[in-house]
Predict the 3D structure of the following.
Amino acid sequence: MALPVAADDPRRTRFSRALRREATDTTPVWLMRQAGRYLPEYRATRARAGSFLALAKTPELACEVTLQPLLRFDLDAAILFSDILTIPDAMGLGLEFAQGEGPRFARPVRSAADIAHLGVPDPETELRYVMDAVRLIRHELDGRVPLIGFAGSPWTLACYMVEGTGSRDFARIKAMAWNDPASLHRLLDVLARAVAAYLAAQAAAGAQALMLFDTWGGLLAPPMFAEFSLRYLDAIAQHLRAHVVAAVLPLILFAKGVNGAGQLEALADTGCAALGVDWSISLGEARRRVGARVALQGNLDPAALHAQPEIIEREVAALLRAFGPHPGHVFNLGHGITPEVDPESVAVLVDAVHRLGRRAVAEGG
Amino acid sequence: MALPVAADDPRRTRFSRALRREATDTTPVWLMRQAGRYLPEYRATRARAGSFLALAKTPELACEVTLQPLLRFDLDAAILFSDILTIPDAMGLGLEFAQGEGPRFARPVRSAADIAHLGVPDPETELRYVMDAVRLIRHELDGRVPLIGFAGSPWTLACYMVEGTGSRDFARIKAMAWNDPASLHRLLDVLARAVAAYLAAQAAAGAQALMLFDTWGGLLAPPMFAEFSLRYLDAIAQHLRAHVVAAVLPLILFAKGVNGAGQLEALADTGCAALGVDWSISLGEARRRVGARVALQGNLDPAALHAQPEIIEREVAALLRAFGPHPGHVFNLGHGITPEVDPESVAVLVDAVHRLGRRAVAEGG
């Protein structure tokens, strides 16, 4: 990579130390979808690739866009450029991205027979392009900052697989949850095994932290979340603890919109290292509820990147105050960066986090 | 109306008594968007009207569709058929509904000058079609069940007025909140006065309960919700208490997705009679947090109407259990009915609520 750092540079370890709730010189920061359409250099690589899927499936190009935001901003972690739907694609559902629309499967899962045909993809053969990207990115990063691997949660993958695409109310998969829970559990079970194998393979290929996105967990009422999502998040976390050294390889769980009484607490009880937090609750509330069990990652409203620089700085200060004293906070947005954001605003944000986070450390805050 | 009821029929008062947290013979039930596209008779009237707006603006047709679900189901309240965007339309923004899309304003609010031009519409002249519909529905209902009037919250109306349409991330109005809060407060202030006058006029025209929908409150982080939404909900509630006899005319507040620590409590502190609750938290949690200050309305996931009859019944039982002992519960969905729902499922739901709610009373539950 163009910007080597010294062996004792705090950026090498700030993110990992914060996930372990160890002291850091300042608050580490990375941003969901930091490699993305708001960057002109991303749009150029994407155009060269020809399609989003070609970009995601070509390790050299996936590596290139993964590193792009790190060349611009002083970020404390890289995250693999990929898509949560690589697993269902490898299962044979035929992932497509129509122009200007979201993802779509050519062969959605609609019946018990469809589910019976699904197998766990072998990560090193059927998802080799992802593992090759992880290896290449690790090599190019050369220790500058840690690399985060990721996957979608079984429930979230199942939502797309059953609906065939994004949906307003996800009525089809919810109808399956009520009317044929046994079939849905079979689907979620094969997905949980696939996700666990996929994340373990990313770890073996060099990922230094893993993140599990339950983007649609918040669609479920609390008892259904427990039955159809949390149960499988828990199984994956257990598998990773058994098969990957968890102390070295932290897991971050992010279940967007899942903030009910007992729910954050239950997510923390999976044994993950950190919880992602959306911006609908304060970090102070999240910390009071989960205590010192886990680190917290979040939770600025991504729309704040449309604010003027001094307002961004004020919002960063408010968020650091809401979290309270170090350690254990990884600054992030509460959801991904949107395409219309000015990259200059991201620079302002990253600088403000490091500057104000350092002051908070100095003040014993 | 085709189905007169006796003077001592409990359906006349069940809903209003529950809002006052007085004993009822069973749990009252009505459903958000109960007059809507899932009903073939609604689709027929809508086709006759020619457009959604023509339907909403013709009192006889609005009355007709308001009553349709009451002819089919044993519901305990009627809700005015209208749209939350009647106020901005009356302010001159030019409301349109494009085929298959959501609402859109021909002249969205984009500048301080746009805001300065906005005035409070006089309900009895500029929104007379709404008041005429309320009077006509009251007459046709003939006391069978109470009629609920409603409006959108200032924040939610401002979202549509500034964005011009629905939006994925509402970046434009949030940028205004951060970069020009004084202008946004001027907009919210005129909207709060307009909403208060509109609701008071609906009460004068015969509405027996009022509901305020803050559909987009949950887009805001808690401090911004307090500043840009709650403050104006509070102002409207105060105005109604001062100008309408609150004990006779209860106000129901529904801020979807607003469930953070202190937020439900603050909504209850406005002095409203009841809170609408979405399905992301349990009614048990909501009740523990707001105590006996308010009644609760909710909170079945609308997708449950795609479940089989025995599953709908099981979910109703679970929800009644989650609320706990009577009184103070108005059964409802956590959001509106969707167009694909089979009306037969609504009949199953309404019957289950009354039957199981009666049993809960008999058991002292």
In short: Chain B is about 50% helix and 10% strand. The mean pLDDT of chain B is 95. Strands of chain B lie at 78-79, 95-97, 103-105, 147-152, 209-214, 251-255, 274-277, 295-300, 329-333.
